[in-house]
């Protein structure tokens, strides 16, 4: 991975996805939890495409 992708992963992707995971845990009801799960899944897919890796591989390192 080149330096720009590494920077993007460390400073944007990792932090953003961890924030969404935290919101899933802090959700008060199932509707809110479902919203954040869907958002996490979509964001994970988009970030994986941007970094040129598989979604499953990216999720392992989050």
Structure description:
The protein is mostly helical and 62 residues long. 84% of the residues lie in helices and 0% in strands. It has 3 helices and no strands. Helix 1 (3-26) packs antiparallel against helix 2 (30-51). The longest helix is centred in the first third of the chain and has 24 residues, at 3-26. The two termini are 16 Å apart.
What order do the helices and strands come in, and which of them pair?
Layout: H1 3-26, H2 30-51, H3 55-60
Helix pairs in contact: 1-2
Entry summary:
This protein is mostly helical and 62 residues long.
β-strand percent reads: under 5%
Number of strands: 0
The general outline is: elongated
- Which regions have little confidence, pLDDT < 50, spanning 5+ residues? none
Q: CA-to-CA gap between the ends?
A: 16 Å
Structural class: mainly alpha
Report the order of strands and helices. HHH
Continuous helix count: 3
Report the helical percentage: over 70%
Mean pLDDT: 91
The gyration radius over C-alpha positions equals: 12 Å
Task: Outline the biggest β-sheet.
Answer: none
